[in-house]
Amino acid sequence: MNCEEVTKLMDGYLDGELDPITSQTIEQHLLECRNCAQAYKTHGALIRALGNAAPYYKAPAELRERIQSSLRKEIGERPTRNGEQSIWSLFPRKRSEPRTVLFGTSWNWLALAATILLAAIIGWNLLPRLQRPGTDQLLATQLIASHVRSLMANHLTDVASSDQHTVKPWLDAKLDFAPPVVDLASEGFPLIGGRLDYLDNRPVAALVYQRRKHFINVFVWPGGAAAARPAMAMSHQGYQLLHWADPDFNYWIVSDVSANDLQTFKQQFEAQTSHH
Amino acid sequence: MALLLKAEHASETEEFESTPKVVKFVVVKKREEDHAQRAELTSFEEAMLPHLDAAHNLARWLLRNEQDAQDVVQEAYLRAFKSFAGFHGSNGRAWLLTIVRNTSYTLLKKNRAVDLTTTFDEEIHAAGYESVSPATILEHSENAELIREAMDELPAEFREILTLRHQEGLSYKEIADIAEIPPGTVMSRLARARAKLGECLAARMSKEK
After folding, report:
1. What's the rounded Cα separation, in Å, for the pair A132 and A141?
2. Are residues A180 and A219 in contact, defined by beta-carbon separation less than 8 angstroms?
3. Chain B residues touching residue A64 (CB < 8 angstroms)
4. Distance between CA atoms of A13 and A19, rounded to whole angstroms?
5. With an 8 Å Cβ cutoff, are A45 and B172 in contact?
6. Window from B4-13, B49-58, B183-192 with minimum mean pLDDT
7. Please, are residues B62 and B101 in contact by the beta-carbon 8 Å criterion?
8. Residues B193 and B161: beta-carbon distance below 8 Å
9. CB contact, 8 Å: B134 with chain A?
10. DSSP SS3 for B154
């Protein structure tokens, strides 16, 4: 591969979007060619600067409210197809009548009450059975809530440090277990800090990493006697979740980064923890 | 006279009798519809509101104006809600960003923004980037204001692709879908966008010196 071809593919190489063989060829070329190695350095610096320093415009709170109220207005005002508008306008004085027709008699109230009671009885008996296989779902909801809260309430970390040797002792001292903390800055996931959290009825460690402008919460707590559990990915309420377990710990990662990024993160995290 | 009175009376009773049935039907129907709409709205909001920051960020970079960005995002959410029933994919963020992007372009075109695509000669401008050392770029890499100014100078298609890649961390495939370009074009457009940004930064850095 000559310099021109390498220059052409440089961006794809830096973005990790090339196939392994092409990547390797470029890597080899960079070792041999000073000019291209220099260009690689400059370009890489620019790309990192962009990811870190370009301002990220978060939506102001009032925009969320504006959108929610406009959506509500939308379903309130959407014209319906069965033409009830024209029927209303035919009987302008009898507008209050339908309520009386529907709910006016005590018979209707009784039926309604009976239905609610029946539904409650069925629900009471059925719900626990339905929920049992969905404990992961339930936990996922808790995890997402915890992730969102950590970003919302300005309480992302209890101990803010990019140094694993600061974060780990701090967590060890606060918990009855010693969670693995690894440094993944060179993989593009700098450590931001650690936090105590409460999940699944127990205190857990939350490690916070960053990917560009997005945050990744890693929740760790000791596993039961159960053996290692293969990774399971799910997407819930727009967030990506990834769960696995090794003989020592349960791991859950929550973030709004792409599923691919999260997989990469998990691989790096696992690779590093197995070194320790 | 008597005959006339009777006829009037008859029509009134008839109206009265027919009213309850029709109205009851309509009310029940309307309540069902309301309920379904509320449920749809809830699931829409659960799926799409987590991406509000991403939507706002993209619109803000494209329009370079906070008020326009907010209007576009609101409009995009309304459009997204109307076509939500047709969305069956798993990548909600990419789907929403596509709508935000298209809504932004509609406004940019309406305002006759001249910067939709690159028009000026890149050969002439390419000179400055090379002369700036990585050290200089690194030195200024924390300067958010400088980077913002340089990025705002770029044409919309460059601002868009840089935001999607560097701030949202999207893959080439996802970017191709959102920006409606062939996957093969993503890398070359990104390369051009970064080179152009490098030039703009270099120009600003040499001015600062």
Report:
1. 15
2. no
3. 49, 52
4. 9
5. no
6. B4-13
7. yes
8. yes
9. yes
10. coil
Which residue on chain B is closest to A37 by alpha carbon?
A: B134
B23 near A CB under 8 A? yes
Chain B residue closest to A71 (CA)? B78
CB contact B152 to A (< 8 Å):
no
Q: Give the mutation candidate from B33, B152, B187 for the A interface (greatest A CB count, under 10 A).
A: B187
* Token pair listed for A21: 């063989």
B160-190: b (≥16 Cβ within 10 Å) or e = bbbbbbbbbbbbbebbbbbbeeeeeebbebb
Reported as type and span, the H/E element at residue A194 is strand A191-199
Q: What is the pLDDT of residues B33-70, one digit of tens each?
A: 778 888 889 889 989 999 999 999 999 999 999 999 99
CB within 8 Å: B167 and A72: no
pLDDT over threshold 90, residue B72: yes
DSSP string, A16-45: T-S-HHHHHHHHHHHHH-HHHHHHHHHHHH
Instruction: Report the C-alpha gap between B107 and B125 in whole angstroms.
Output: 29
Distances in Å between the alpha carbon of A176 and those of A84, A170, A219, A225? 65, 12, 15, 17
Contact B175, B182 (CB under 8 A): no
A21 CB near a chain B CB, below 8 Å? no
Point out the residue among A9, A44, A63 whose CB comes nearest to the CB of B56: A63
State the smallest CA–CA distance between residue A37 and chain B in angstroms. Answer: 12
Rounded distance between C-alpha atoms, residue A191 and residue B130, angstroms: 33
Residue B32 pLDDT more than 60? yes
What ipTM describes this predicted complex?
0.77
